[in-house]
Amino acid sequence: MSVALCPGPRVVRVLVADPIDGYLDGVTMLLRDAVVPTPAGPVALTLVATTRWGDDAVDLARRHEPDVVVIDARLLEVPDRDIVHELGTVLARRQVHVLVLVPPGADGVLGGAFRAGARGFLIRETASAHLADAICTVSRGHCWIEGAVSTRLLPPLAEVADTRAAASAEVHRIEQRLRTLTRSQHEVLTHYAQGRRPPEIASLRSCSVENVRSHLYAGKRRLDATDLALVVTAFFTTGAIRLPRLDLAETRH
Q: Is residue 253 part of a domain?
C-alpha cells in the first residue's frame, strides 16, 4: 500500500544586514527557524548569515546564496557601489530579493533602491510585527510596502516608475490590459498598489481576506503579469493612482 507524503514547508534562506548589534540580535531571534503560515502553504525561514556592513552583505550573499536579503537602508549608502543592484545580480542561479528596513531620515535612498530592484520596504522601528510575513511575500517576487506608511514610501517610488516602465515591455502590455479588469479586481489591485495589505483591504471592502486574495491573483492572471510589482508600476504610469506631493520631513513627526 502506498503512503502519501505531505510536502514539507517551502524553505526561504535569509541574510540580515543591520548596523546595530542589539537590533540585529532581536531580528536573529525572531527569524531563527521560524515557520510562517501563508495561503500557499507554510514557509520555513532559515537565517544563513548576519552582518553590520553593506559591502559585507554582497560577499555573504555570494557565499550563502540567500533567497531574501533584509538590509537597513543606511547600509545601502556605500561610496561608488550600488548595493541593491549587486545583491540582485550576485548569483547566476537564483534571484535574490531585497527587503529594505527604513529608519528615520533615510527617505532619500528609497527611489534608488526601488530602481535597483528592491521590492520590500518596512519602517525599521515597527518591522518586527510584519517582518516574517514580508520576507515570505518578497521571496515570491511580490511587493511589500507597509500600508500604514505608504504615503511616506510611495512618492519616491512613483518618481522612478516612468523610468522603469519605459524599459519594460511587460509594463506596457499590462497598461493596455488594465481596462479588462473587473470592478472588484481593479479596486483590490488599487488598494494593493497604495500599500495596503489583504487584511486592511478586506476590512475596507467588508469581505474575507480569502476573497481579497482571490481578486488580487485573478487580476494578476487577467493582466498576464509575472510580477505584482509591475502591476503596481502600471497603475502609477497610467495615472490610475495619483499621490499628492508630500513634505516627507513632516510625515516623520
A: no
| Owning domain of residue 200 | 168-242
Full pLDDT tens readout for the chain, 253 residues: 444 445 678 899 999 999 988 888 888 888 887 888 877 788 899 999 999 988 888 889 888 889 999 999 888 877 767 787 777 666 545 678 889 898 877 767 777 777 677 878 888 887 777 888 889 888 888 878 765 555 555 555 555 555 554 445 777 788 888 889 999 999 998 888 777 778 888 899 999 988 888 898 888 889 888 767 778 778 877 777 654 443 333 333 3
Q: Which of 133, 158, 183 is the last residue of a domain?
A: 158
151 and 191 within one domain: no
Same domain, 173 and 146: no
3-class SS string, the chain: CCCCCCCCCEEEEEEEECCCHHHHHHHHHHHCCCEECCCCCCEEEEEEEEECCHHHHHHHHHHHCCCEEEEEHHHHCCCCCCHHHHHHHCCCCCCCEEEEEECCCCHHHHHHHHHHCCCEEEEHHHHHHCHHHHHHHHHCCCCEECHHHHHHHHHHHHHHHHHHHHCCHHHHHHHHHHHHCCHHHHHHHHHHHCCCCHHHHHHHHCCCHHHHHHHHHHHHHHCCCCCHHHHHHHHHHCCCCCCCCCCHHHHCC
